[in-house]
């Protein structure tokens, strides 16, 4: 009787281990399928946001997220950056201005050096003049490409910009 009882327990334990192993394999396969699905969706989103291969995914997703949150009123009633030019990961060469598109019209008095900085990784902070176009929703920073070293990475930081209604930008935005 003892040997048959222990044999039954061993067989039961073996069966349980096999079921657990199979369930773990099924869960792993299911997780891998879900991850591949998410990867395909992100790749599709990347292709939509980055058809020319010039904007980093993080910058593109940041632009989409900040614009969507601001438009939905979840972040702030202030302006948010929704477009940039030149795109992220561009080194000096071939541009005469930096364009920053906002979700709302902004004030000329807030588009100033303390609120927007342009910095070359080799040459340091750079001066610029600006103008607003597109009903005040786009700031055009006139920065001469000749101010930078050849091939130099350029960093831009935008913060504390005020809309024409008086609301201030909720989150700073930067790219290089």
Care to describe what's here?
The chain contains two helices and eight strands. Strand 3 and strand 4 form a beta hairpin.
Q: Total strand count, please?
A: 8
Biggest sheet strand line-up: 1-2-6-5
Question: In DSSP terms, counting alpha (H) and pi (I) runs of 4 or more, how many helices?
Answer: 2
Using the CA coordinates, give the radius of gyration.
27 Å
Low-confidence stretches: none
Measured by DSSP, the beta-strand proportion falls in 15-25%
What overall geometry do the principal axes of the alpha carbons give? elongated
C-alpha termini separation: 77 Å
Structural class by sheet pairing and helices: alpha+beta
Mean pLDDT over the residues: 76
Q: What is the percent of helical residues? A: 25-40%
Short précis:
The chain is an alpha+beta fold and 176 residues long. The protein contains 2 helices and 8 strands. A hairpin with a 3-residue loop joins strand 3 and strand 4.
Helices and strands in order, then pairings?
Layout: H1 2-49, H2 57-71, E1 81-85, E2 97-102, E3 116-120, E4 124-126, E5 129-133, E6 138-142, E7 154-158, E8 173-175
Antiparallel strand pairs: 1-2, 2-6, 3-4, 3-7, 5-6, 7-8
Defining traits:
single chain; four-stranded antiparallel beta sheet; alpha+beta; 21% strand; 176 residues; 8 strands; 2 helices
């Amino acid at each position: 009787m003892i040997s048959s009882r222990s044999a039954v327990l061993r067989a039961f334990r073996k069966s349980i281990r096999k079921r657990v192993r199979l369930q773990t394999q099924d869960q792993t396969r299911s997780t891998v399928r879900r991850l591949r699905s998410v990867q395909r969706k992100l790749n599709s989103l990347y292709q939509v946001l980055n058809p020319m291969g010039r904007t980093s995914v993080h910058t593109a997703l940041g632009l989409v997220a900040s614009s969507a949150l601001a438009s939905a009123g979840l972040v702030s009633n202030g302006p948010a950056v929704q477009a940039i030019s030149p795109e992220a990961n561009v080194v000096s060469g071939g541009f005469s201005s930096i364009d920053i598109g906002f979700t709302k019209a902004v004030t000329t008095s807030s588009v100033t050096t303390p609120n927007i900085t342009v910095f070359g990784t080799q040459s340091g902070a750079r001066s610029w003049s600006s103008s607003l176009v597109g009903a005040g929703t786009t700031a055009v920073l006139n920065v001469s490409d000749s101010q930078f070293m050849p091939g130099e990475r350029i960093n831009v930081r935008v913060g504390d910009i005020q809309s024409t209604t008086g609301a201030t930008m909720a989150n700073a935005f930067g790219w290089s």
